[in-house]
Amino acid sequence: MEQTTELMLQLLRASLNGSTPNLPPLPYSEWERIYWLSRKHGVVTMVFDAIERLPEEEKPHGDIALSWELSAERTRYHFAHQARVLEAIKKKASEIGIPLILIKGMTLAKLYPRPDSRACGDIDIYFPNNYQKGNQLLGSPGAELDGKHAEVVIDGVTVENHLHFLDLNYRSQRKAEQYIIGSLHQVTPDGELCPMANMVYLLMHTVCHLTAKFKLPLRNVIDWGIFLRAHQSQLDPAECHRLMRKINMEPAFNALTYLASELVVTDISQYIQKEKLRIEDMTKLRDMILDQSFVPPVPKELKRLKRIIARYKRNRQRRWLYRYLPSSAIERIWNNLSHII
Predict the structure, then answer these.
(1) Is 154 helix (H, G, I), strand (E, B) or coil?
(2) DSSP letters for 268-336
(3) Could you state, in chain order, the average pLDDT of each consecutive group of 10 residues for the chain (341 residues)?
(4) pTM exceeds 0.85
(5) For an engineered disulfide with 193, which of 165, 177, 197, 335 has Cβ 3.0 to 4.6 Å away?
(6) Rounded to whole angstroms, what are the CA distances from 240 to 199, 270, 271?
(7) Residue 170: which of 272, 317, 322, 304 has the closest Cα?
């Protein structure tokens, strides 16, 4: 692993564990490389949190220090703005008596040592049995459904109103959706899914992005580790594995938890069944994440036969990943063809 990557991970671990990083003296050029790498991975403000705890003489200085401060300020300003928009939506929902469930980014941010350091792209909301009323509440009754949700922009913030929690292309997704819907009576007082249902949602959402795009950003791995660490008292490892087997997600659960433990969080090993993992695959997956060596999508403008061949070659490049994905081979073949035919 390159020195710059390892230094960035050391800073990330210190940030997530609330500790002071133990780094050797670093030249300006190295700080510059760490800055651009952390920006590339979307963790620049988290890394800056750890830097702020360094002794003054060990911190970066000059233009790169200013760049870091400005990046952190932008992240925190945007987070505060999103929080204000969310509070306005919650207030309106409460006034008209529509229940609201918050999912993904904003629920995860509060689990971080400093919530406003976790950049959030948008706000994800689910109105149980009130999808259309939710669109009206958001000021866009005619919002177009795109897959599992509609998008509405409120004061510059994208809000996704979910008709479904997940895409329902695969049997495993449908099973997970059914489990989540069956758990809605256990929604927390803060309007969030209960820990077990939230765990199923977060894992399936992450893995489906990996299935569709062969892409797993470092921030998703961090989110998973932070979530498990925060809910250790509520998530029994044996019960988690039983549920994961039931919805065909145990290999993915093991892999993602192993990566989170190795890369950024060290105290979630009780959830990992190492005997069921191929360490060589975990090395490939870790390198894919850190190097961002993702397989590019197939161009849509290709003719049908060429697109079929290109999709086949693309899938073959990452065939080892299918050991950790919940979809069956037949489902993947049909899903690939349905996008072409």
Answers:
(1) strand
(2) -GGG--GGG--HHHHHHHHHHHHHT-PPPPPPTTS-HHHHHHHHHHHHHHTGGGGGG--S-HHHHHHHH
(3) 89 92 92 95 94 93 94 95 95 93 92 92 93 93 88 94 89 90 93 95 87 80 94 94 91 93 86 88 89 73 74 72 69 51 51
(4) yes
(5) 197
(6) 9, 11, 8
(7) 322
